[in-house]
Amino acid sequence: MTSKIALVTGSNQGIGFGIVRELCRRNVGVVYLTSRNIQRGKEAVAKLEKDGFYPKYHQLDVSDEESVKTFAEYVKNKYGGLDILINNAGVLDSDFYKVSFEEAKRIIDVNVHGIILMQKHFFPILRDNARVINVSSDWGHITNIKNPYWVQRLTNKDIKLEDVYGFLNWFLDSVKNNALKEEDFFENSVLAYRVSKVAVSALTRVQQNDVGKGISINSLNPGFVRTNMTKGGGDMTVVEAGVTPVYLALDIDQSVKGKYFWFDKTEVDWADSTLDVVDTFDAFEKALEEVNK
Ligand SMILES: NC(=O)c1ccc[n+]([C@@H]2O[C@H](COP(=O)([O-])OP(=O)(O)OC[C@H]3O[C@@H](n4cnc5c(N)ncnc54)[C@H](OP(=O)(O)O)[C@@H]3O)[C@@H](O)[C@H]2O)c1
To answer: InterPro entries of this UniProt entry (predicted)?
Structure first.
């Protein structure tokens, strides 16, 4: 394997940790495990070292512009550029059934604005033919949104950043004004998360349209993975969940751009609003019940 520089956001635990492990296993030159909390990050590095994997470490909080800027400058000065960026950091609604304005803002800040901050500071140092993977969700497929105006606007091939911002503002205003409409969503649970992940998938297409330099940017549903986010429920381990993101970062053809992938490496048409691909919330709740038995 050639010597590439890779970094994974939010990788002290969960899927991000699995992705770092897989990047190391595949002998990518330099792999950065990053975390918002330094101690949790260093403990994660020590855990991988015990298994014979040696990632490097840097602090990175994707909701803190100073932190993002500091790390981007560090990578630029030390390596001159970046080859693989995996935007994995994410948070889920703490109340699955009810969304407050503050909570919606917090989730959108990390899940969407975090990726936009990473774009601002890291895209200028991406090398030609670099790869970016945005970790979305099946709850980030367009079929989660049933409002015809937003489905049409978000699936437009020439989508712009202002369309993504418009969508997020529509949601935040509806939450603030207590004006959410049930019929606008596939299901009325984890709404801030769903909206944020639909925005991540849409943003992937915006980023690809704008980026140039042969860079490829794709998003992915990593599958239902046993992590703290799912309170231990799920079908896959974090080690298994690391495989497909790394396949997208290393193995698929560079010409695959702006697409949305499933955890089994197949491509799913993100913009097809007639597909039946999204897991119901009921399945998630059943998995949690199993864990708590
Ligand atoms: N697990 C699933 O079944 C599933 C399904 C679909 C999509 N996903 C997506 O996969 C990604 C990883 O989820 P996971 O299940 O592995 O969750 P997790 O175990 O809760 O891990 C999330 C990671 O993101 C980090 N993080 C949160 N806010 C951050 C910030 N501001 N800056 C930097 N890092 C931050 C967390 O750090 P701390 O340890 O400090 O909290 C943690 O390392 C998320 O984007 C999630 O939405 C997961």
So the answer is: NAD(P)-bd_dom_sf, SDR_fam
CATH number of domain containing 118: 3.40.50.720
Tokens 């004004």 correspond to 177
Of residues 32, 57, 193, 260, which has the active-site annotation?
A: 193
pLDDT tens column, 173-229: 999 999 999 999 999 999 999 999 999 999 999 999 999 889 999 999 999 999 999
193 flagged as catalytic: yes
What CA–CA distance (Å, rounded) separates 83 from 107? 27
β-bridge pairing 260-261 and 267-268 = antiparallel
Q: Which residues line ligand 1 (CB under 6 A)?
A: 9-10, 12-16, 35-37, 40, 60-63, 88-91, 110, 114, 135, 137, 222, 224-225, 227-230, 234
Q: Write the burial class of residue 248 (CB in 10 Å: 0-12 exposed, 13-18 middle, 19+ buried).
A: buried
E strand segments, 2-91 = 5-8, 30-35, 56-59, 82-87
Q: Under a CB-based contact definition with an 8 Å cutoff, are residues 193 and 111 in contact?
A: yes
Residue with tokens 């550029």: 81
For the question of whether the overall pTM of this predicted structure is more than 0.70, the answer is: yes
Q: Which domain holds residue 47?
A: 5-292
196 and 108 Cβ atoms separated by less than 8 Å = yes
Distance in angstroms (rounded) separating the CA atoms of residues 73 and 285: 43
* pLDDT tens sequence across 89-100: 999 999 999 999
For the chain, the domain total comes to 1
Question: What are the Cα distances from residue 39, in Å, to 86, 97, 268?
Answer: 21, 33, 38
